[in-house]
């Protein structure tokens, strides 16, 4: 699909067109591809599906990113609560420099995606953005949607740590479907839920298959519990304070008794709550570097919203796939 098919291409389509033609011919054209959810195509690389521009960056990230032992990486499958976990991680890691009750806290004026860069999306390895550079001093905080299998070698070989968030697949699917529809060009209309569902079940979704992504991190977290902390959206939602403390302990910056007594953990949870973040001006009307409105990242922020959309047959099918994929792994979502 070419650029002129859209009267006003949404940001991600515009970026898609920036991928160099020579690279398209030499590299991209050799990969399996399928029609995307809104983007022209998704391409399969190392078992997972990427947009062209994203894949272009993945290769550069795999080649150039040098992890440091003190790095913390927020990893996730898309629509699992990345924006939330980035906010929590930022608030707790930098709580000395930015007390969470400070009315000048960076999260009040910037979206967490502007504070915690995606390794494979936000960093131009030749010219890092100046507002990211301020956080490049140790401890550095990054994020990534890359499957563990595809993480740069230095991430696997260094002692850097990862916190991974995943979510019930039915909620992840519904969230992704809504998100896609908000970003599709108006001329394309809404992607029918049946079509999206079929793609999701076949694993053809942004950095899908969803189940392989989750399982990759789950299995590594069992082998290396000191390196990967495996978290579930639903559990953070239910007991946010406990999980904020778990993350701080895991990284090696546990809350002091005085901090807990003075309510720092509560303040972090409150600062990063859906209600608070989604009502900030930056998240209501701000945009990221690509032009994507931040408000598309905040929809309902609830669990089991799938009940409003999925038919009993769809529920059966997704549950069956999840059971089969996770069978014997000890993982339940
Ligand atoms: P819903 O579409 O179900 O509402 P990601 O950040 O990985 O793109 O995930 C987006 C999902 O997380 C959306 O789910 C969004 O509403 C939800 N979300 C965003 N901020 C949140 C927060 N502070 N607390 C809980 N959920 C949040």
UniProtKB/TrEMBL annotation:
Single GO molecular function: transferase activity
Q: Does the keyword Transferase apply?
A: yes
- Family from the record: Belongs to the sulfotransferase 1 family.
Q: What is the lineage of its organism?
A: Eukaryota, Viridiplantae, Streptophyta, Embryophyta, Tracheophyta
- Please state the Enzyme Commission number of this protein: 2.8.2.-
Q: Which Pfam families match?
A: Sulfotransfer_1 (PF00685)
Q: Does the keyword field hold Metal-binding?
A: no
Start and end of every Sulfotransferase domain?
Answer: 70-330
Give the originating organism: Cinchona calisaya
User: Which keywords accompany this UniProt record?
Assistant: Transferase
Q: What is the protein named? A: Sulfotransferase
